[in-house]
Design a protein that fits this description.
The protein is of the alpha/beta class. It is built from twelve helices and nine strands. It has a nine-stranded mixed beta sheet, sandwiched between helices.
Length: 356
């Protein structure tokens, strides 16, 4: 049985959701899935612009920025590449693309940089694209992930965070930085991620209400897909192959997924009432497009509390037939796992409805 998103009748108001149910669901995800995000603030965040250049015949300004985080006498940092329209006249909306692939040259499926962060498309529509190399804070490696950010918040518990929690945290630190700048419209910030980063983007958006729109690209197991009954990857696969991604408690559900106190529609619902876009790839049975669509549909009751429409009334769409008219959007791109220009074209159309 998939756990109920909302509780018993009578309590289903916006206020009850915000004050009781949403925080409760968030705590369940911390305890059993992603691990606890430390609440103690950093002592300092420093930003340093390392390099600036013009691209696309002067139409795009690229800034490479180093963000350094400090706590308990330890410092760690990560780089972000900001792509701004060169002729920016007023603060612009920004899209943060979490990139945990910067140290992993063997992976090719996130796509080439222009697929993963097509700054020409993004800036031509007046937005700022931010490619955040979050694996510089926490390596995507079971032997190295406890170097860097982990040392600022050491922990040894069954519910201590893993790499996905740390990448999500890094997304929020990018938001901290953007709030210090004059050229960002911080009422219009989106977070996006592909695959493992899609899981992190959802978790980041779920926790950080400053993010106003959330996008998940082929995030699959422990991302946008309902765990119970999905095809492909399961708790046992993800926790065996990537033991550093999630908290230790999660692995204990390997042979008893039915007992998980949550399922992934509840994660998506934490984004409500903010616009959410989930996308799949048709040949990606490992992630399971149907289960991603199902979770997006099942997040609807949280949106309904705000009088907003999700995907409830929609059928699973054919390939390359995006659904963008509600507050929850979805498409199933024809092809394999990864992030492609086609995906971005749809995200930008969805975003435009909210950011223009
Ligand atoms: C797969 C993994 C998925 C997904 C993906 C990726 O091998 O099983 O959970 O996140 O990698 O990050 O590309």
């Amino acid at each position: 049985m998939i756990p109920e998103l909302l509780e018993t009748k009578g309590k289903n108001t916006k206020e009850y959701w915000e004050q009781v149910r949403r925080p409760e669901i968030q705590r369940l995800f911390e305890k059993w899935v992603y691990g606890v995000t430390p609440k103690e603030p950093l002592e300092e965040i420093n930003a340093q612009i390392l390099n600036t250049e013009l691209l696309e015949n002067g139409r795009v300004k690229k800034e490479e920025v180093l963000l350094e985080l400090k706590r308990n006498g330890k410092v760690c940092g990560f780089r972000c590449r900001l792509f701004l329209p060169a002729d920016l006249k007023k603060p612009a909306p920004a899209i943060i693309m979490l990139n945990p692939f910067s140290r992993n040259k063997k992976l090719d499926y996130p796509g080439k940089e222009m697929d993963h962060m097509p700054y020409d498309l993004i800036t031509s529509q007046g937005y700022i694209g931010i490619h955040a190399d979050v694996d510089e804070l926490c390596a995507d490696d079971p032997d190295l992930y406890q170097e860097g950010l982990w040392e600022l918040y050491p922990g040894r518990a069954e519910d201590s965070w893993g790499a996905i929690g740390m990448w999500a945290f890094a997304g929020s630190r990018v938001v901290d930085y953007l709030q210090m700048r004059q050229d960002m419209n911080c009422d219009k910030l989106a977070v996006c991620g592909c695959s493992r980063a899609g899981k992190a983007a959802l978790w980041c958006g779920a926790q950080d209400q400053r993010i106003s729109l959330v996008i998940s690209n082929v995030s699959g197991c422990t991302g946008a897909a309902i765990t119970r009954g999905k095809t492909g990857e399961h708790v046992i696969d993800i926790t065996t192959k990537f033991p550093h991604w999630l908290c230790k408690n999660y692995a204990s559900f390997s042979h008893r997924e039915e007992e998980l106190p949550v399922d992934q529609h509840m994660l998506l619902a934490l984004c409500a009432p903010r616009p959410l876009y989930v996308s799949s790839a048709s040949e990606d049975v490992w992630a399971d497009p149907h289960s991603e669509f199902l979770a997006a549909q099942m997040a609807e009751p949280a949106y309904k509390l705000y009088g907003k429409q999700g995907l409830k009334e929609c059928e699973f769409p054919r390939e390359n037939q995006p659904i963008k008219n509600g507050c929850v959007g979805y498409h199933n791109r024809q092809g394999v796992h990864g992030c492609r220009r086609y995906d971005w074209e749809q995200y930008l159309l969805f975003i435009k409805q909210y950011f223009k």
